[in-house]
């Protein structure tokens, strides 16, 4: 299932229906309680498990090494954030797609663990479709709250978008040794509830930097996070991602 374990003649014989999965992580601040590797950890872990599940079910799928550094400029203020400019990330995704287009592979699936990459990922998907004829897909381990996803934690008021309840729970499941739950505090921008039209997951989005909301770094309420919630969340993400990969392998618009 690992693309990079194959030789070039083996890669030259892959089926055109093979889905190449590229996990997009991020190395960026996630508040005082989570490591800067959070998005990288989640994207690569879900991708590994989902590709394994899909592969066992007979879906033609290969896993590319995860991209650790992506577009985290909204967290540029914090030490530990290592970010690519949008131009660099766009060129990187295009160049990876261009390289894959020299193989028989015609299906490329970005599994994106960092919401800040989503808009750019959609543009890259279209660019790769037009320039190289690839069938491209952009999915998330779970749909981000600011892209219409739901949060189950009422105290987050629909704003658990970064280092909140779900993400903290997921890291508690995957790498409990990296979570400093004793430092977790709520950081919910309650002032945004005054607006009906503008906000996370509302009809009108807005440009923001994470320190616009204060010095905490995270946006959400991690205080009630548990490994059990994280396990359920992780397993659901693996299941939906594996199902998406199976669809991607047979996807056709006609
Ligand atoms: Zn994150």
Describe this structure in words.
The chain has 254 residues and is an alpha/beta fold. β1 (19-24), α2 and β2 form a beta-alpha-beta unit. Helix content is 34%, strand content 8%. It is built from 6 helices and 4 strands, in the order αβαβαβαβαα. The two termini are 29 Å apart. α2 packs across α5, α2 crosses α6 (227-250) and α5 crosses α6. A 4-stranded parallel β-sheet has the order 2-1-3-4, sandwiched between helices. It has a single domain, classed as Rossmann fold. The protein binds zinc ion. Residues 30, 38-39, 114, 162, 167 line the site of zinc ion. Belongs to the creatininase superfamily.
Examine the secondary-structure arrangement and name the CATH architecture: 3-Layer(aba) Sandwich
Give the amount of beta strand, in percent.
Answer: 5-15%
User: Helical amount among residues, as a percent range?
Assistant: 25-40%
Strand order of the largest sheet: 2-1-3-4
CATH class: Alpha Beta
Q: Tally the beta strands.
A: 4
Along the chain, the helix and strand elements come as HEHEHEHEHH
Rg (C-alpha, Å) = 18 Å
Bound molecules: zinc ion
Separate helix tally = 6
Write down the CATH topology: Rossmann fold
CATH superfamily: Creatininase
The tally of domains stands at 1
Low-confidence parts lasting 5 or more residues at pLDDT below 50?
A: none
Structural class of the secondary elements? alpha/beta
Task: Tell me the major beta sheet.
Answer: 4 strands, parallel
Q: What best-fitting shape do the alpha-carbon axes yield?
A: globular
GO molecular function: hydrolase activity, acting on carbon-nitrogen (but not peptide) bonds, in linear amides; metal ion binding
Cofactor: Zn(2+)
InterPro entries: Creatininase-like_sf, Creatininase/forma_Hydrolase
Protein name: Creatinine amidohydrolase
């Amino acid at each position: 299932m690992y693309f990079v374990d194959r030789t070039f003649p083996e890669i030259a014989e892959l089926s055109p229906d093979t889905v190449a999965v590229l996990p997009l992580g991020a190395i960026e601040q996630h508040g005082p309680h989570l490591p800067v590797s959070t998005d990288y950890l989640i994207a690569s872990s879900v991708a590994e498990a989902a590709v394994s599940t899909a592969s066992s079910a007979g879906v033609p799928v290969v896993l590319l090494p995860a991209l650790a550094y992506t577009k985290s400029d909204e967290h540029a203020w914090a030490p530990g954030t290592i970010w690519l400019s949008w131009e660099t990330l766009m060129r990187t995704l295009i160049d990876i797609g261009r390289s894959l287009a020299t193989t028989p592979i015609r299906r490329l699936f970005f599994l994106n663990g960092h919401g800040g990459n989503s808009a750019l990922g959609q543009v890259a998907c279209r660019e790769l479709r037009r320039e190289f004829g690839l069938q491209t897909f952009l999915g998330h381990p779970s749909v981000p709250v600011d892209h219409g996803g739901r949060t189950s934690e009422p105290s987050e008021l629909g704003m658990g978008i970064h280092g909140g309840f779900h993400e903290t729970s997921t890291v508690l499941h995957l790498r409990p040794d990296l979570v400093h739950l004793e430092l977790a505090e709520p950081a919910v921008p309650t002032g945004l509830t005054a607006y009906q039209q503008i906000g996370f997951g509302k009809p009108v989005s807005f440009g923001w930097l994470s320190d616009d909301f204060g010095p905490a770094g995270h946006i959400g309420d991690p205080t009630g996070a548990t490994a059990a919630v994280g396990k359920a969340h992780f397993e659901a993400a693996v299941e939906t991602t594996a199902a998406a990969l199976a669809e991607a392998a047979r996807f056709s618009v006609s």
